[in-house]
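OP here, attaching both records as promised.
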Amino acid sequence: MGGLAALAVEAGHKVTGCDTGVYPPMSDQLRALGIDLVEGYGADQLAFNPDVFVVGNVVSRAHLADGTPKYPLMEAILNAGLPYTSGPQWLSGHVLHHPTHHATGPRHVLAVAGTHGKTTTTAMLTWVLECAGLQPGFLVGGVPLNFGVSARLGAGNTFVIEADEYDTAFFDKRSKFVHYRPRTAILNNLEFDHADIFDNLAAIERQFHHLVRTVPSTGRVVVNATEESLERVLAQGCWSEQVLFGKAWANKAGFTANGEPGDFTVLKAGKVVARVQWGVSGVHNQLNALAAIAAAEHVGVDPQTAADALASFQNVKRRMEVRGVVSKSGGDITHGDSGAITIYDDFAHHPTAIHTTIDGLRRQLNAAGKAADRILAVFEPRSNTMKLGSMTAQLPRALEAADIAFCHAGGLDWDAREALAPMVDRAHVADTIEELVKHVKAAARGGDHILCMSNGGFGGVHAKLLAALA
């Protein structure tokens, strides 16, 4: 919704917005754009008298225990009969398929879907198109460091969008991505998530097939060949060109990688077509790169040009972002080891994402000759799926590559200590941020890498750790 607000401002509209607990980097971006942020959902905001209310999917018809509406502004809009629409519907009608917001001809929409890696892959693909001179528009669910903003209209005919399978709005329960009508669609991966709205994996697979149905016959569907779930999606029907990536298979038109994640050759149909050398870690990012290269090819960018662009890709805020380094000489870390302590911020919140993020950091340390350095994983199960407790059994494996894990368990309805019991003394659970910081400080020593993972603000834990360790 923050990215939509940015696009609306760039298109010349006057925009205000409301939410609760808005946190950086989006809050900083919105204020820099001159967008007034109102805390809460009070009905008094009707006084803004907008032409239309664009409603995010956090808003519902829920009521509190005392019977009052949780979102009184929405109730006031409905009662007054005022115009409203969903974020994806507004985007489709005013940006993606609007005749005045592109250079010449219709937009070529490139949509990036998947349980994991959507934001990073969207940022990669956008940067590739930018370096190729296509001046793409984009909407990313984060802030790509190469651009410094999460969205822009763009001057060219391409638009790259992060395509989320979460539902559109309380009045439109379809997945958001069915509104985007892409000509190029990346299906990056697919596993169970969003337990608050999907009963099982098959229900999500059905939504992904709805996306596939919207791709024209002249379009391209770029699919991760390592995912059985995506095989089932395509088995339901596909009417577009299919380009696979990720491993060897019968379809010789696909893309594979040979080499380490930081330096690898790209093969198409078994023939080397490019080489990627960059500073981004993790096998998952190697797969993300293959997807971006395959999608960019559909709009005329050859693989080597795409690979050259990826060499200068700077990733996205909150994706293995270094938030600070504490030097032993400047603090009181006296456990006997030398070296600085590095604190990272990452958006990982699903067990698979936590596992791949830790594994990516471990591989990066090993490659740098720092195999002995410890990883301290600090996380909070904040997503709706994790709060429901439907994936607690996966947590010990997700954290296995960390030397010590620290869990913020405040507000959970399930027992984090019981869930992490298989890790024995390698796991610590705290009910408050302050207690969590104390646990980490007591365990930290020189040379450690403290990896903080959450899809929220995490109570400012990064700054609090830096202050405590300093």
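Record two, same layout:
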Amino acid sequence: MTESTIHPRRGDIECWLTDMDGVLVHENRAIPGAAELLRHWRDEELPYLVLTNNSIFTARDLSARLTASGIEVPEERIWTSALATAAFLKQQKPRGSAFVIGEAGILTALHEAGYVMTESNPDFVVVGETRNYSFEAITKAIRLIIGGARFISTNPDATGPSAEGPLPATGAINALITEATGKLPYIVGKPNPMMFRSALNRIGAHSENTAMIGDRMDTDIVAGMEAGLHTVLVMTGISDRAEIERFPFRPDEVLPSVADLLASS
């Protein structure tokens, strides 16, 4: 095994990426130890980013929501699938155009990346998360993709949580459009390692000294592993011990919660 293929060890970690829901907060309440861990990173001047596949909200919105939960995270320390998608499209086609299904998070990110929103011959159709999916908008997206627009999506999550139970999410709409067009989307968010690489670029970090904390084997851990990061699975969200056994790969560490990272730092 060459040096470049060895994942960093905890003692080598100088930068941190962490998922948000299930790691720092659960149902809009701070997970014990999360605020203290973030404070420790700030005090030690360790570069970090909070990652989320949520493309509904802007980083400013999410910063305010975390503050209300008792966790202080400046907006510049939040990296969403919407921001990653906008960065990817800016690199692919600067000053391009897009037809977007989504809300403020993806629309704001694309505007700030220099994109024009249009329904007339866009370069891309971009599907993000929204709570107001429109049959008319989905129909328009299908016709534009058939007409040659490239199909991009912020994330693959088929469902999202709510107090009443699961909600159809971006991945479900992706599947509907794929069935109608025969085209698969290019998905920028987790588990695409591209989201992690763009996050590393954002804070000037390198995989050799960066760790990823997550609560899902199928997104956080696999993408972190493929990006060459030290991976830490916490048990405060989706995964449990039985879930780990379903996968042919393993995280570098499995901990009860982020509080255990603080205790061992």
